[in-house]
Amino acid sequence: MGVFGGTFDPIHFGHLRTAFEMLQALRFDEVRFMPCGNPPHRGEPFADAELRLAMVLAATEGQAGFVVDDRELLRDGPSYSVDTLSALRSEFPLRPLALIIGMDAFLNLTKWHQWREILQLAHIVVAHRPGWRAPDMGPLGTLLADRGTHRIGDLHQARSGHIYIHDVTQLEISSTEIRELIAAGRDPRFLMPDAVRAVIEKSGCYRKPDTAEIQ
Ligand code: ATP
User: What pathway does this protein act in (predicted)?
Assistant: First the structure.
């Protein structure tokens, strides 16, 4: 099972294509989208939890293998990946778990709460993201040398412990840019599914109070 955490503020094709390519290429039985409630590494999300969940549900609806899990949104306090993975591990004691993160997130791994525990609970699968390179020195360089694998089979044979870097189609889309675009009164069409765009349009979120309609 791939576990794809994120703020998803909003979810976009960079997330969805990455998840889909991993689902297929890494032969995951499912990719579980896990919107985070209160991200410990960044400021408050712009859209509230309910809206971000609605966007993730709209984006993934009808796609076989895509599952949405709202447990982090229901939990009070910071959303630590290690807690989420512990809960999943208790629920699925025998299933391999793989935390999916972009290279930008992986480069910050050592700042995560109990980051070393994460590999005891799950594999980490890293998606290449435009503009970011894999670390070759420091604690993450060492970790990659120790735990990195190029064999997809390792992700299925062991339940946790490997790091796999996967080349996905590079889509230079970010939630930040989408929010800025909408705030400037422009249309995020073709950066995200229309169903997500519809949720954004209806709620009016990300829009500056003085912009009447997106163009
Ligand atoms: P923001 O611009 O607000 O920081 P984001 O676009 O990076 O948002 P997040 O919800 O923070 O989106 O990302 C969740 C996960 O998806 C992270 O691990 C991130 O690295 C990864 N990710 C985001 N955008 C892409 C992309 N275009 N290609 C591959 N991975 C991505």
Answer: Cofactor biosynthesis; NAD(+) biosynthesis; deamido-NAD(+) from nicotinate D-ribonucleotide: step 1/1
**Where are the chain's structural domains?**
2-203
- How far, in Å, CA of 11 to CA of 60, rounded? 10
Q: Which of 7, 46, 177 to mutate to test the pocket of ligand 1 (most atoms within 8 A of CB)?
A: 7
Ligand 1 centroid vs 95 CA: distance in angstroms?
26
Q: Where are the alpha helices (DSSP H) in 122-157?
A: 138-147, 152-157
2-203 CATH, one of 3.30.70.100, 3.40.50.620, 3.40.50.920, 3.40.50.410: 3.40.50.620
pLDDT given for residue 210 in this prediction:
64
Q: Which of 19-23, 43-47, 118-122, 137-141 comes out lowest in average pLDDT? A: 43-47
For residue 101, what are the β-bridge partners? Answer: 126
Per-residue pLDDT tens digits for 87-110: 999 999 999 999 999 999 999 999
Question: Quick check: CB of 175 below 6 Å from ligand 1?
Answer: yes
78 Cβ contact partners less than 8 Å away, ≥ 6 residues apart = 38, 39, 40, 113
Crossing angle for the helix pair 13-25 and 49-60, to the nearest 10 degrees = 50
Q: Among 169, 185, 204, 206, which Cα is nearest to 10's? A: 206
